[in-house]
Amino acid sequence: MTYRIALNFEDGATRFIDCNDGEKVLDAAYRNKINLPMDCSDGVCGTCKCHCEQGGYDLGDEYIEDALTEDEAEQGFVLTCQMVVSSDCVISVPVAASACKLAPATMEAELVAAERLSENRVRLSVKATQGALPTFLPGQYVNLSIPGLDGVHRSYSFSSLPGAEVATFLIRNVDGGAMGSYLERARPGDRMTLHGPLGSFYLREPKRPILMIAGGTGVAPMLSMLEVLAEQDMGGQSVHLIYGAHDQADLVEIERLDALKTRIPGLTVVSTCSGADNAHPVKGRVTDHIGADRLNGGDVDVYLCGPPEMVESVRGAVGDVANLYFEKFIPAQPEELAA
């Protein structure tokens, strides 16, 4: 039996390795040509200390207190030189990938379709030119090269299910921008390079109610997360999504969200428009629709993605919660937009 281990590094890079039954994570990483931090490899120095975000494992009793305290172990910290997993796991590694002698992960892909969902929203679909697309954690992103512009790329979160043959991304179409200009001439078969996956914004194991708050194309990673939740046992936990845009036309993928509601027990969705002249029945900013009941007295996991101003506004509105995971969509700088 083998298990899939996601190693999420301090710089946001993620690498996936296979770990055999009974094999220690440090040994599995080395076998997969990843040099995780280590010194003694005997549970004495603590150099290989990481944090297990999710998954089952055993640390045995051969390490010493100076290497890993009882409090640290209770908080999910692990020594990879002693860690034997019993399920798939996600492990946060407190160093950059480059420190572990990892080269950037790149993959060649080709455009399947560029579908205009509204004047300002495009769904981009790509597939690998050879083999499979990169494995990623739901919520993560890649840097996507722009055909015809050497060295120019943009960052987009996956909106598709990990492991799907075709990956999808939601793009905010910026007039005069590098990607916006490309989309005017995009054709199926165009070659692109994917660099990643990247990011520490990803779905954790559902242990309490989940509140997702998305602004604009920030709904993309939420869609990927929801696709994964649709295939999991939620253990009775509820999921609520607040999805906002300025204009009603830019509230895209609503039919997909409706379909997900039939697949995820306890999923509720509120979409809202902040623009003054919208016919959308629900109006206001996303912060107008959070509600104390959705915060569950702070015992809630909040996933937040959107423009920086919205993210900061929501962070102030939710206060102290059990877990707050967020990612800001920062647009390219003006000089980059002209590229």
Automatic annotation (TrEMBL):
Cofactor list: [2Fe-2S] cluster
Chain ranges of the 2Fe-2S ferredoxin-type domain: 3-97
A Pfam family recorded for this sequence: NAD_binding_1
SUPFAM superfamilies listed in its UniProt record: 2Fe-2S ferredoxin-like, Ferredoxin reductase-like, C-terminal NADP-linked domain, Riboflavin synthase domain-like
Any one GO molecular-function label of the UniProt entry: oxidoreductase activity
Domain of life: Bacteria
Annotated protein name in UniProt: BenC
InterPro entries assigned to the protein according to its UniProt record, in alphabetical order: 2Fe-2S_ferredoxin-like_sf, 2Fe-2S_ferredoxin-type, 2Fe2S_fd_BS, BenC-like_FAD_NAD-bd, Beta-grasp_dom_sf, Cbr1-like_FAD-bd_dom, FAD-bd_FR_type, Flavoprot_Pyr_Nucl_cyt_Rdtase
Domain FAD-binding FR-type: 104-204
NCBIfam families associated with the record: BenC (NF040810)
